[in-house]
Amino acid sequence: MVDMDIIKTVWEGKLPICFNLSEKDTYSYEKLTPVYMLVPRVSYLPLFSEKLQNHFKRLINHQEEFKVWFSADKIPLKSHYPVGLLYDCASNQSLPWSITVHFSNFPSDKLIDLSKEENLESHFIYTVKEADYLKSRGLLIQSFQQKEMESIWAGLKTDNFEQFWSINRKLMDYEKIAHESNKAGGENPVVHNGFKCIPCRVYLPDRIGFVQKLIKSMHDNGDQYVLSDLIAILELPLDNVTNYKFIIHGIDVPSNSPLQWLSENFSYPDNFLHILVKTVIEQM
């Protein structure tokens, strides 16, 4: 069941970030003043490119069209990952988080070019549609009007919780998914109390990218899948669940949390659960 209080608390999570201009992009000997921002964890770094460009433009030694990209500890940051996920995956988690802004030498072999907002928007909407296909075979989002899709993006871009969730909540209504399926005369794509599948991506220590498979919300006997079931479902190379913790939105989530509930309340705006698995450091 959707709990809007929890969802809003998650949405309001922010990270203090210190943005520094790459020394390779400046011709000035003037001391470079960094930019400090409180950035929503659910947002994306390219959405702040214009502000950063306006701040650093008099120091930049390039006149051609920019391809802005970001790095932390000399590691390029994936612009299509939410900010909170990037931070949770970072090895250095001191705050404020130090990020370097680059205006040249775009590493096309390591990053998707989302320097233009329309490209980031297209990638985001595509991911939302993928998530809905997993949950409902696309039965809900296919009925959306163009203005509703635009409203979802605008709500995320402007950090407008009410605007975003007034539309996105429709994508969490599994009862309507069943209703729409019955109207279409097809096989009901969902179990009685959940989505057909859970949009979920798992990020492992020392592994590039994520692991993703079809994950049902319930067992055949009606019991709900819980977080710890991911170890067997995804065939993760983990020995004992007690040696690991599951991080979503920077929160250490109990391993017995139902995936259906998490999907409704802990998904990022792209409607995916992004779960980071970390080793538990034993206290001496």
TrEMBL record:
It comes from the Eukaryota. GO terms for cellular component: Atg12-Atg5-Atg16 complex; autophagosome; mitochondria-associated endoplasmic reticulum membrane contact site; phagophore; phagophore assembly site membrane. GO terms for biological process: autophagy of mitochondrion; cellular response to nitrogen starvation; piecemeal microautophagy of the nucleus; vacuole organization. Residues 10-103 form the Autophagy protein ATG5 UblA domain. Signal peptide: none annotated. Residues 198-277 form the Autophagy protein ATG5 UblB domain. One of its GO terms (molecular function) is Atg8-family ligase activity. Conjugated with ATG12. This is Autophagy protein 5. It comes from Dugesia japonica (Planarian).
